[in-house]
Amino acid sequence: MNSRLISIIRKEFIQIFRDKRTLALILVMPLVQLFLLGYAATNDVRNVPLAVFDQSHGPEARALLDAYRAADYFKVAFAVGSEAEMQVLIETGQARAGLIIPPDYAAQLSKGSAQVAFILDGSDPTVAATALSAAQLIGQGHATGIMAEKIARNGQNFKLQPVVDVRTTVWYNPDMISAYFMIPGLIGLILSAIMGIVTSTAVVRERERGTIEQLIVTPIRSWELVLGKILPYTILGLFDTVVIIAVGHWWFGVPVRGSMPLIVSLSALFLLSGLGIGLFVSTIADTQQEAILTVFMTILPSVFLSGFIYPLEAMPIVLQWISYAIPLRFFLVIIRALMIKGVGLDAILPEVTALAIFGVVIMGAAALRFRKRLD
Asked: Which stretches does DSSP call E strand in the chain?
């Protein structure tokens, strides 16, 4: 190894250790990815919120519910009084499954066999597939227990037949096609990642070329400069939204059951967060490369902790709480509910409110910091 190569290596190490942000990316980000992948990258679904419509209210029905409670796949979160109420809970995402016990459940059991209905939200195929298998296995296990009790009471002369028949039904995505889940999620991921990166680099590029100083000395006001920088990317972002929806619908067969104007309007609302992050990064980054790396640090948590790939129900409770600080989490609920379930604004109003708060706060803070940087 010659002295010139050693000098170059030494110089690179000096530059790395002088640049604290680059050093943090090199040393800290691998650990962050390790923990995110280690905890979040799992498809083991637990504690799926279950809505129960118990029309029997007898000890036999309570025994069936106890069987579902005993397994950690489901959490009996709601007791409803009608199928319409159950449908609202599933449409809004508060419940991911529903169990309907008929009023004559006890009488059916006494005659030898009873049927219950188990409804699943198929908008997330990963959760639905696991919950479908779990619902059937729990029902079969409970039926086996009842059969064993009857054999013990009546002896070997008892006729063996299933005593509890769990009839499963998958709503919204009966075939549990993954594209129905992934394509709407791509809209949120592209809007948050691409728009954040291009906004941050566009402003930094002006600074690198020295043209930002030329803009400052012109009569243009700071808010006009901010708005002028953001609007083109807003238009491009909405164009990307329409293109992804069109390709997803015509090529992948993903349904668009909700209102298209509402989808575009709420996508524009979500853009405020992505553009705000990009604008904020442009005020702390000095080069385009630094801006891209900084935005990338915000993309990783969004991908793994928003429910884009891995179900939130499978994550530790701490990561679930952290996910509430990620705007993409709320947008994914909105876009999937609109496209796959075809719900209205009232069903996603809490997520829309949270998204509006995020957008105003992030964009407001970024605009104020950008204006101070210009001053």
From this structure: 48-54, 74-79, 97-101, 114-121, 164-171
Contacts of 151 (CB under 8 A, 6+ apart): 158, 160
Closest to 138 (Cα-Cα) out of 55, 146, 77: 146
Answer whether residue 25 shows pLDDT above 80: no
Cα-Cα-Cα-Cα dihedral sign, residues 176, 177, 178, 183: negative
* Whole-Å CA distances, 22 to 27, 105, 122, 239: 9, 65, 43, 34
User: Could you tell me the residue ranges of all domains in the chain?
Assistant: 48-171, 177-374
What pTM did the predictor assign? 0.70
Instruction: State what percent of residues in the chain have pLDDT above 70.
Output: 77
Q: Are β-strands 74-79 and 48-54 bridged in parallel, bridged antiparallel, or unpaired?
A: parallel
Q: Give the three-state DSSP class for 91.
A: helix
Three-class DSSP category at 327: helix
The CATH-assigned architecture of domain 48-171 is 3-Layer(aba) Sandwich (3.40)
Q: Single out the residue of 67, 72, 80 nearest to residue 119, CA to CA.
A: 80
Residues with Cβ within 8 Å of 124's Cβ and at least 6 positions away in sequence, in order, are 96, 181, 311, 336
Mean pLDDT estimate for the chain:
78
Euclidean distance between CA atoms 307 and 40, whole angstroms? 9
Q: Write the CB contacts of 131 (distance below 8 Å, at least 6 apart in sequence).
A: 45, 48, 73, 74, 96, 97, 120
For range 96-116, the mean pLDDT? 85
